[in-house]
Each structure stands twice: as structure tokens, then as C-alpha cells.
Design brief:
The complex is a heterodimer of chains A (329) and B (299). Chain A is mostly helical. In chain A, a hairpin with a 6-residue loop joins β3 and β4. Chain B has 299 residues and is mainly alpha-helical. Chain B contains eleven helices and two strands, in the order ααααββααααααα. In chain B, α1 packs antiparallel against α8, α1 crosses α9 and α2 crosses α8. The radius of gyration of chain B is 19 Å and the shape is globular. The chains are: A mainly alpha (329), B mainly alpha (299). Chains A and B meet through α5, α11 and α13 of A and α4, α9 and α11 of B.
């Protein structure tokens, strides 16, 4: 993973192919977006089908502030992220009332409603054509690339910190059994709202970056496809990992772009790859890789990398473990 | 929806007829979707794609190969049901335990079907041959026969499914598995075979919807997306697992949509939005949906 990160940082030094840099810069934005989805869905189990709400609302906020009031990017991006936090609070309201598939589909409603509003006021929001002419992030292409890639590293690192913190334990617990958590005296309402706000912040940050990178914001940022794509990336990469969805984006997004050489068959091949992958690795690529690379100690159930001959905790010999002992369940 | 009623001057007649037909159409799809959800616990997002595929199969058999209509419908039904069972058995059933993976697979399969149709047939709008040409005089209104046929077929199939599920011996194991799969299994009901059977019924309903309702409008590879949103909304609004609820809310959403299109000029693009607002409002006050039932293992 470090090699891949380094390669991403060194990319502009070896090539100045604008197309390639554009693909990876866009993938960096979507990686943040997908990881924020994992924070919400993977960790706290609030399976949302309307994640594009955060992305779109922040993209529109940045675009409107930038175009109508002339704010520079370093003000509009935090503003977009903050509005997305408010959107997160709004989305958490149905999550407090309904659960499971009910919530998934209730969350689907939010971006559709917002899209209706955007179409209703075409003079202010640009309607179907969207808003264009947004300020660039930086004067040069390399500068833009580095801003996006470095903000991806910083933001995913932050999410990783949140995901490994003690608070995230409560998110895990809410996903597993919310009633037990409440019985244990934990204010689940607070933590559910918190995870929505966190996820909204990161997704909104990605949305604002997207607005300033593409310099066009249209209804496509709120589209159902936008919400569904992030789920495909996330589940393909592997949930409850933060890095899984990032890997998913960096595999699938360039792949989809590369398939442009055969435009008619592009989506069909893409969907074919996703179906075959998920059919045989329903837990996603990174979780599957982890299962293959790690084995479980038969004595203390600690997980070890496959290279180790003895367990790193209890020093039992694990070189001869059977395949059945290696898997988690 | 087109305006094939020359004599209809009253708006309420338009709304009533269109609402009943569109509602029946949504109800057929929502019924199939909620059956397979209830019995196999599979949220099959590809369900409206089966509707789209059957419309194209009918188009291909009747207009390209020029088969006779009965042959077309029998072949379509056979082909689609076997396709549905194959998709369920080979792709969805093995990963059934991971609900989110099932969600994605269904969706991706739907997109794959859409892309395949785009490659084979192209994106232009086509129309199916009407089964019953001509019109019928009803009082002061003139209604096209195809609309009447669609209305009758939709209502008859809804009645048929109701009879099958609640009044025949055939429906007992299906309802038993939907109520509690483990106990049903213990009672000797072959749960996986019942799931396959349900999948066949659910795809069959999509074929009926396609053969009766699709000739009223145009068909194109993207025609499954709007029904997808409506079916999901209807199933949630009615309460997951409740067959009565999903049928009633499908009609409700259709009437909302149709009245919006006819009463508010230029608001056709808001039809999805309004359905969603209705669903959210209902969920706020009745989180389990209109006729919600609790499935085992949920709390």
C-alpha cells in the first residue's frame, strides 16, 4: 500500500500526461467520498442509499458561494463541508426513527427531493445545466493534482484515526446490536448523529473539491448513480476498513476510464467484472486479501500475517494450521 | 402516458383510468419484489430490469422474428422465468447472507441488462404492438381497448396472486417461509425450492406487467429506473414483507403521480420527489410502514 501511495505522489514527476493525472486526481476525490461512505455504512451500519446528498449539497454550496459571492476555494470548501454536516444532521433524523432496509430507502429519498428543488429554481441553481465557471483549485495542473492527492491522504488518515478510536467501538456496537448498546447506558442518539456528521463532513469535503476541480456542478452530483457508485466501490473494495473503499476506487475508477477504448461495451464489461468479483468474494477484495494473507492462531484467536511461523501473542506454532483454522468464522 | 381518449373531457376520468392502470402496473412489480423479499430475504433490485428485459424479449420475438402473439408470450414467459431462476440460483442465492452484496449485485445486474439492451437494440424509443386495437364507448367516454385490456389483466393477475397465496394449498408453504424460514424448514418445507418457485412467480408477474402495460407507452433500455424507485418506495411505504401494503401503496403512489401530472402543469419532473416526500412523511409517523409486519430476527 505504501508503494502505491508513493507511486501516486511521484506520478507527476514521471509523466505529464494530462489525461492520466486527471483520472488519478478524480479517483482521489472519489476515494475520500467512498471512505466517508464506509465510515457511515461499514462502521455504524446505517446503510444509506443516498450518500450523494452530502456530495451534491457540498458541491452546490461551494459553487454558489464561489459564483454568487466570489468566495475563494479555501473558504468555500470548508463551507461546503459544514453544510454537508448539516445535511448529515438532517439525514440522521430518519435514522433515529427507522432502521435497516427502511432507512436505506428513506435515505434514497433525500437526494431525489433536493434534486426536485434544484429543478424548481433553475434561475438560482442553474437547473438542468448546472453551474459552471467555478474557480480552479490552483493555477497549474500539477498543483491541482497535489492538492487533491495530499488532501486525500490527510482526510483518509483522519478517517482512519476516527475509525480506530474508542468512539468507533461504539459505532461497531451500534451496527451489531443497537438495543444492547442503549441498554449499556450509551446515548445511541448522540453517537448516531455524530457518525452522520463525520461522514457528511468528509463526503462534503470531497464534493467541494470535486466542484472546484471539475469547475462544473450539475444535478449529476446528486444523481442516484452517484450514490450507487460509491456502494459499488465500497463493497467491491471491502467494508469496515476505510482503506478498502479507497482501494476499490483506485481499481474500479481507472478501469472504467480505461474501458473507454470500447465505449459500447464499457459498462457491460465493468458490471461483469463487479458481478464475478462479488459472486466469488462477497466480502470484498481487501477483506478477502486479508483472509488469504492472515491466519488465525488456534489457541488465542489472534490474527497473524501468513509469513509468521508462530503466533505473535502466545508463540504457538501456527505453521501447520489448516485452512479452516485460518478463516475468522 | 399518451392521451388516447378522444371523448374524455373530465379530468377525474383521466386520473382514475390512468391511476388504475399505472397503479396496477406498479403493484404487479411491487408484488413480485416483495414476494421474493419476503420469502428469500433477497432485496432483488434487478426486479424492474426483468420487466424491461421481458418488454424487449416480446419486442424481439413479435416484431423482429414476427412470431404469432401466443407463441411470443409463451416463449417470453418461459425464457424470462428460466433467466430469473438462473440469476437467483447462480448469482443471488450463494451470497444471500451478505445483504449489502445482494443489494449491489442486483443493481449491477440491472445495469448490465440495460447495457446489453443498449448494445443489441440501441437507445431509441420503440413501441410494442397493441394486443387489442380499437376503442370502446363507455357512456360519454371513449377508452382504447388496450387500456381496458391492461386494466383487466392487471387486476386479474393481482386477484390471481391473492388467490394463489391465501386461498390455495400452493400458497401455504410460501407464506410459511415468509413468516419464519427456520420453523418452516423444521416443518419439512423445502425452503430453497420454495424460494425458486417464488422467484418464478415474481418474474412471471414482471412478464405480465411488460406484456400488458408496456404496449401503452414506449420501451427503451432505461425504462426500469423509474419503476425501481417507485417499487422501492411502495414496498417501504407499505411495510416490508406485507403484500397487501405494497399493493395498496403502489396504487397510492400511482394516483399521486398521475394527479400531479394532470393537475399541476409542468410538474412531471417532480413526480419522483413528491412520492419520496410522501414516503418520508409516512415513515416519520409510522416507522414500520402502513401495514408493517416484523420479520424474525429483527427488532
Amino acid at each position: 500500500m505504501f508503494v502505491a501511495a508513493l507511486a501516486l505522489l511521484l506520478l507527476p514527476l514521471v509523466t505529464d500526461d494530462a489525461y492520466l493525472m486527471r483520472i488519478f486526481a478524480t479517483a482521489a476525490i472519489f476515494a475520500v467520498y467512498a471512505a466517508s461512505w464506509d465510515l457511515l455504512v461499514g462502521f455504524s451500519g446505517q446503510t444509506t442509499l443516498g450518500h450523494s446528498l452530502f456530495f451534491g449539497v457540498a458541491a452546490y454550496t461551494s459553487a454558489l458561494l464561489n459564483l454568487r459571492l466570489g468566495f475563494p476555494p479555501f473558504l468555500t470548501i470548508p463551507a461546503g463541508a459544514l453544510v454537508a454536516v448539516l445535511a448529515g444532521l438532517l439525514l440522521s433524523l430518519p435514522a433515529l426513527r427507522v432502521r435497516g432496509p427502511y432507512f436505506s430507502l428513506a435515505s434514497l429519498a433525500m437526494p431525489v427531493i433536493l434534486m426536485g428543488l434544484i429543478f424548481s429554481f433553475p434561475g438560482f441553481t442553474g437547473g438542468e445545466m448546472g453551474l459552471s465557471g467555478i474557480t480552479r483549485l490552483s493555477g497549474t495542473r500539477t498543483g491541482e493534482y497535489y492538492i487533491l492527492v495530499i488532501s486525500m491522504f490527510v482526510l483518509t488518515l483522519l478517517m482512519w484515526k476516527i475509525a480506530t478510536s474508542r468512539t468507533a467501538l461504539i459505532f461497531h456496537a451500534i451496527r451489531e446490536d443497537e438495543i444492547v448498546v442503549r441498554v449499556s447506558g450509551i446515548n445511541t442518539t448522540y453517537y448516531k448523529m455524530l457518525v452522520f456528521c463525520c461522514s457528511g463532513f468528509f463526503a462534503g469535503f470531497a464534493g467541494s473539491l470535486y466542484a472546484h476541480f471539475l469547475r462544473v456542478v450539475g444535478p449529476s452530483t446528486l444523481d442516484i448513480m452517484m450514490s450507487l457508485q460509491v456502494i459499488i466501490w465500497g463493497i467491491f473494495g471491502g467494508v469496515v476498513t476505510i482503506y478498502g473503499p479507497v482501494i476499490g476506487v483506485f481499481i474500479l475508477y481507472p478501469l472504467l476510464e480505461y474501458l473507454r477504448i470500447i465505449p459500447d461495451w464499457r459498462m457491460l464489461i465493468f458490471t461483469g467484472i463487479v458481478v464475478v468479483t462479488l459472486r466469488f468474494m462477497p466480502e470484498g477484495i481487501s477483506n478477502r486479501a486479508q483472509d488469504l494473507l492472515e491466519r488465525q492462531c488456534p489457541r488465542c484467536k489472534e490474527r497473524n500475517i501468513f509469513l509468521r511461523k508462530e503466533c505473535r501473542i502466545c508463540c504457538t506454532d501456527i505453521g501447520t494450521c489448516s485452512r479452516a483454522d485460518r478463516t475468522l468464522n | 402516458m399518451s392521451f388516447p381518449w378522444k371523448g374524455v373531457r373530465k379530468l377525474w376520468q383521466l386520473i382514475l383510468i390512468n391511476g388504475l392502470i399505472i397503479g396496477g402496473h406498479y403493484a404487479l412489480l411491487a408484488l413480485g419484489f416483495s414476494l421474493i423479499l419476503g420469502v428469500a430475504r433477497v432485496l432483488n433490485l434487478a426486479h424492474p430490469a426483468f420487466y424491461m428485459l421481458s418488454a424487449f424479449t416480446i419486442y424481439y420475438l413479435s416484431q423482429v422474428l414476427e412470431l404469432s402473439l401466443p407463441a411470443t408470450y409463451i416463449l417470453t414467459l418461459l425464457f424470462m422465468v428460466s433467466l430469473g431462476i438462473a440469476v437467483y440460483q447462480l448469482i443471488l442465492a450463494p451470497v444471500r447472507a451478505q445483504t449489502s452484496t445482494v443489494l449491489i449485485l442486483g443493481l449491477v445486474l440491472g445495469i448490465a441488462a440495460q447495457e446489453l439492451m443498449l448494445i443489441i437494440f440501441g437507445g431509441q424509443f420503440r413501441s410494442l404492438v397493441r394486443l387489442a386495437p380499437g376503442t370502446l364507448q363507455l357512456g360519454d367516454a371513449v377508452i382504447s381497448n388496450q387500456h381496458l385490456l391492461a386494466l383487466c389483466a392487471v387486476l386479474l393477475s393481482l386477484l390471481g396472486v391473492w388467490f394463489l397465496l391465501f386461498k390455495s394449498k400452493f400458497g401455504i408453504p410460501i407464506r410459511a417461509v415468509a413468516q419464519d424460514r427456520e420453523v418452516a424448514n423444521l416443518m419439512g418445507i423445502p425452503e430453497s425450492r420454495i424460494a425458486i418457485l417464488t422467484m418464478a412467480v415474481s418474474v412471471g408477474l414482471a412478464v405480465i406487467a411488460a406484456s400488458m402495460v408496456a404496449p401503452l407507452g414506449v420501451i427503451d433500455p432505461l425504462m426500469w429506473l423509474h419503476p425501481l424507485v417507485i417499487v422501492l418506495t411502495a414496498v417501504i411505504l407499505g411495510g416490508l414483507g406485507s403484500i397487501k401494503g405494497s399493493v395498496i401503496s403502489a396504487f397510492m403512489l400511482a394516483f399521486i403521480e398521475v394527479s400531479l401530472v394532470f393537475l399541476v402543469p409542468g410538474a412531471a419532473f417532480l413526480r419522483g420527489t413528491v412520492s419520496m416526500i410522501v414516503m418520508l412523511a409516512v415513515l416519520m409517523f409510522k416507522p414500520e410502514g402502513l401495514y408493517g409486519v416484523f420479520m424474525e430476527g429483527e427488532r
